[in-house]
Amino acid sequence: MTSQVETMAAKIQGYKQDLGNSGMQGRRRLQAIEGMADHITLRRMEGLGIKEGWRCFEVGCGSGSIARWMSYRVAPHGHVLAVDMNTEFVADAASAILEVRQQDITTMRPPERTFDLVHSRMVLQHLAEREELVERLISSLKPGGWLLLEEMETFSLFQNDTGPFLQVVEIMHAMGRAAGTAVDWARTLPRTFQRRGLQNVNAEGEMLYFSGGSPTAEFHRLTGEQHWPYAEKMRLLTRAQFDQYSERLKDPNAWFYGPTIFGVWGQRPPA
To answer: 15 lies in which domain range?
Structure first.
């Protein structure tokens, strides 16, 4: 299936662009990601010691929940720079502490030796420039500053029983790979951090186990809605099959093995 998707996805104009997060459906998907992953991210940031006065950089701020939280934690003398290609859902949160900037991270040159904490979640794995971006983000750290990258890996999804959910997950996984998403990139990051001189490198993966109707279920349902028109055009998925998938994800009595949210962090050596 993967080779078929790779061949056909390249012929479908707008495929990768439509996997973004714009409009009301995009906002709902970003809110589902927050419900799915914010508690994990906040725990990890707390563990790194975020505090008043820190300067932070949020790469890909989505609808802004993490950027807002960081701005509360570093107030009143800290600063948070939050960037995204689309800032429509976070622009209203801008303040003297929280700077919101519409910016393509692939062309941005962040200031060097500036930040106490740099964070990105479920962004870099979708970008062809991911390795170069890691280097830039490390350069933006102050001596003693922390880089925390979080990405989603999908291997745990394949532990689900055969049925509508697993069937659609397999199709979306193949299409994501065809669009350039590095679905297994996160597991390489600890070695990357070490090679590039970071200290106190650590990593963990938190596998989500979720029920229908939960934020994680809504994330998968909305992600499926993004993929389904293209899967139909490539004759990989029928509407009836997708409807079975969607209805299953609304059932509070149904339980699923979810994705694994990998977190990798490391510290720039003190001066």
So the answer is: 2-267
Cα-flanking dihedrals φ and ψ of residue 81, to 5°?
A: -105, 120
pLDDT per residue as tens digits for the range 178-237: 878 898 999 999 999 999 999 999 999 999 999 999 999 999 999 998 888 888 888 888
Q: What is the DSSP string of 34-48?
A: HHHHHHHHHHHHHHH
**What is the rounded CA–CA span in Å between residue 35 and residue 65?**
10
Q: How far apart are CA 102 and CA 78, in angstroms?
A: 21
pTM of the model: 0.92
User: What are the pLDDT digits (tens) for 152-190?
Assistant: 999 999 999 999 999 999 988 888 888 788 989 999 999
What six digits make up the tokens of 51?
A: 């505090």
CATH number of the domain within which 122 lies: 3.40.50.150
Torsion angle of the four alpha carbons 35, 265, 195, 269, in this order, in degrees rounded to the nearest 10: 150
- C-alpha–C-alpha distance, residues 54 and 234, integer Å: 49
Please tell me the total count of domains within the chain. Answer: 1
Residues in the chain, how many? 271
